[in-house]
Amino acid sequence: MPSFDVVSEINMAELANALLMARKELASRFDFKGVEWEIAEEKDKLVLSANDQFKLDALREIVIGKLAKRGIPLKNLEPKDAELSSVGRARQEILLKQGLSGENAKSVSQSVRSSGLKLQAAIEGGKVRVSGKNRDDLQSAIAHLRGLDFPVSLSFNNSRD
After folding, report:
1. What is the CATH number of domain 12-96?
2. Second label for 31, Cα 20 to 30 Å away, from 14, 39, 51, 133?
3. What is the pLDDT of residues 103-149, one digit of tens each?
4. Could you read off the pLDDT of 28-83 as tens digits, one per residue?
5. Cα–Cα distance for residue pair 80/65, rounded to 1 Å
6. Tell me, what's the pLDDT at 149?
7. Cα–Cα distance for residue pair 96/93, rounded to 1 Å
């Protein structure tokens, strides 16, 4: 029976490329000469830090711009509030959302079922597996899901016959 998976993932190689491009741009920018800034990449978040709030805002705009140019879905980024230290140094975390949460997976599953197509949708961990007898119905389901607005970006992979 043909099937596909609905997932919400960030391509980590593209993320690394975007951060490399941001670091190169920041190293050559005139307004960042003599400014201590850092882009730290952790397991499920990015940590940006700079000398003050103004430089942190500029740093965040550069990083998000590079991520958008490399095709990283901005819906999967969740910026937290900036923190200021007692010496004036600014720091901000940007969480990276990987996988579908239970609530998002449930809404994807319900929208597939309510589309009127003869398909089954099963939630399996951080993904939703959609299966049916007809490949055309699966393609219609993909088109239907792309037309809806979810809090995270959706991608479709692992098509099977």
Report:
1. 3.30.70.990
2. 14
3. 888 888 888 888 888 888 888 888 888 888 888 888 888 888 888 88
4. 888 888 888 889 998 889 999 998 888 889 999 999 999 999 999 998 899 999 88
5. 17
6. 84
7. 10
CATH number corresponding to 3-8+99-160: 3.30.70.860
Which class for 63: exposed (0-12), middle (13-18), buried (19 or more C-beta within 10 A)?
buried
pLDDT at position 127 is 85
Q: Residue 161: pLDDT above 80?
A: no
H/E element, 126: none
- 12-96 and 3-8+99-160 share a CATH fold: yes
Token pair of 5 as six digits = 């998976």
Kindly state the percentage of the chain with pLDDT values over 90.
24
Structural contact between residues 120 and 101, judged by C-beta atoms closer than 8 angstroms: no
H or E stretch at 16: helix 12-28
DSSP string, 41-103: E-SSEEEEEESSHHHHHHHHHHHHHHHHHTT--GGGEEEPPPEE-TTS-EEEEEEEP-S--HH
d(CA 94, CA 70): 17
For residue 26, give the amino acid letter: L
